[in-house]
Amino acid sequence: MLFIGIDGGQSGSRAALADESGTILARVEGPALFSAATGTEPTLLADIAALVRRLRDESGAQRDVVRSLVAGISGQDAQARIPRAAIAAEEARLVHDSEIAHAAALAGYRGILVIAGSGSVALGTDAAAHAVRRGGWGTTFGDEGSAFWIARAAIGAAMRASEDGIATSLIASICRHFEVPSLRALQKGTLRRTTSPLEIARFAARVLEQASDGDAVAARVRDGAAEALCELVVRVEQQLGGRSAQSDTPVSYAGRVFDDAGLRDAWRERVVAAIPKARVVAPRAEPVTGALILAYRDAGRDFPPALLRSATS
Predict the structure, then answer these.
(1) What is the mean pLDDT of the chain?
(2) Structure pTM?
(3) Has domain 2-107+285-312 been given CATH number 3.40.50.10470?
């Protein structure tokens, strides 16, 4: 019996195939996967089927039965079953990508996960398996604390600083990053839509670096992002709090924004101050492993402990 996990994001996808013992037999990477409607769009299903074929080719397991497949897909609001005619698996379903990230970070157990990458979202579960999700509304309406939010806030802060005559290294960095002669040129390029949200989001890493280097304007943006990401956790905890009799609340994180130690520390301090019973823990595994954890669960099994060791080896 084989199990497949897929982490489908807007910038690319990862897939892994494991056996009953939890040993990873194959890993592949593929195109971006995004669900704009029900999760049963023909193109999306065709891309998933292609990943499955590549996993089989990579592992040499051409004839073994795929017992269960779980794919976490960006934009997938509600879980959806994949028909066997589309994917050769006894059981296959699509879930929101936050579900696989949560399972990976907390090894399939209860707690709260906040994700900050291109967007931001928080997902929490309690001991009774109740789930609460907050955020994830996209760059136009939300995604507070995300890479796009950080970059946009930093650019706006730099524009105001230039008007007020406040010194900040962000101005020169912005012009270098976007290859423009001035902030005004960037503004006009954005109005003409020659600057994409993804290009803007990529600037977030530089903002966080400059915050660590002591730029006061960048540091205020970083702290604002930490506060916004803490607020996501608090909102989830408040909704779960009435149902939970647990003495502590495991809280974890995922996404490239949390790669920055300064932001991660600022966020952790705020979470612990806001939720006295919070226990902040490092993520146990990557989202693709979380998809495998859910695949074992769909088959009515506990995931093998070897899975976490195999996934990180």
Answers:
(1) 89
(2) 0.86
(3) no
